[in-house]
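chain below, 382 aa
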Amino acid sequence: MTASSPLAALPIDLTGTSFIELVDPSLPAVDLTAPFRIAHVEIPGRVALAPMAGVSVQAFRRQGRRFGASLVCTEMVSSAGLHFANERTQDYLRIATDEHPIAVQLFGTDPAMMHEAAAMVADSGADIIDINMGCPVRKVSKTGAGCKLLDDPDLAVRVASAVREGGGLPVTVKIRRGMLAGSFDCMTLGPRLVEEAGVSALALHPRSASQMYTGFADHRLTAQLVELVDVPVFASGDITDRVRAESVMALTGCAAVMIGRAAQGNPWIVRDLVEGTVTEPPAEERVAELIRFIREVVREMPEERAAGFLRKFYGWYLRGAAFGKSTRRELMEMGAPAEVERWLLDRYPAALPRLEELERTVRYPDETDRVIELPISAYGGG
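prediction:
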């Protein structure tokens, strides 16, 4: 790391208060609402929602945009699934007019298939194509995709080049620091992706694949990567409040932050980051947003699939003492989403006015929205 980095030789433990102590008042103020560009695509702010498999469906993305996310991304889509028109695909990935700018994330290792998949994504109307080179889940990594591409930088560059040539859209890549703890593979691969493959932005989650989501994200690596490339870099990992978002941006020089697990069932964190507020929404607001989310998911996928998909969200939305473990447990044991909705409104009638307001003011996608016929991955995120 060069001496110019504010993070040189500093241990950053995002799990404790020591991170806040690193904030230097002399550093320039950070404006999380300032626009920037990824190639020709204007991004209207500095807070993006990370692609998360089993989470980043259209309902999640639209809600995130409504709360202020400046860029949203689909969960990762298999290039092989597109090539072979996988019959197990149960639904279509849909992009609504109010989701732009939006990236579709692809994963795979065959440059020809990735080229073909990129062309399909471009034809669908997406703004950006993202490539997953960070997913540590074995179902992905055992195929050589996701984080395993960090071990084969030559192939990674060929894959990224194929996507850029096939889609003709700006290409971004999400990477981890490397496969093993202490690895610096991202420092080799990141610049090559930019210089040799023409990638327009990078997102770094500075944990190793072997860490999964344990330990902490070492954003000293983010600072170093920023110094090595001349494209925007997103900082991903442990961005859980505005202080950390502003501090990571000020200390690393990254272009934007990417919010992942902290936004699961918690769109309020996006608003807090963007507006500088720290709010704990009342129980009735949480219930109203959850019911609206349920309704959008049911419109998006078959009801039986929606019922299974939604169970994890009940615990995420209804966290805290206002609801209790018994409430979350009871909801997760229910079947039909309509049953869950009735149960919630029966116990939290104060949510109804807020829900009615959402129904009046927030549109549902309709036939004017383009449909991207892509299989939704069942794998984990990166």
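The first strand starts at residue 36 and ends at 38. The radius of gyration is 20 Å.
thats it, cya
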